[in-house]
Amino acid sequence: MSDDRDFGSEDYEMLLALDDETPTKQLQRATLSELRSLPVIDFVAPAGDGSRDEGRVTCLICLERFAEGEKLKLLPCLHRFHR
Q1: What is the pLDDT of residue 34?
Q2: Rounded to two decimals, what is the model's pTM?
């Protein structure tokens, strides 16, 4: 069995169907009140070469790097984003 085949139209349709069944489609957005209640932290750059810390030094929403001391919102899953 080869893993390097091209996707065909039937593959695309199957992927679209999977997307429709994904539970995250049923999640609701956070309210403004919920967003405001998230803790605010000061960004401190991780020690070391940073090769494994890209997700910790970059905002997952705007994809900009955090600046030292910048205020961030912290989610329960420990992801962080610009305030």
Answers
A1: 92
A2: 0.58
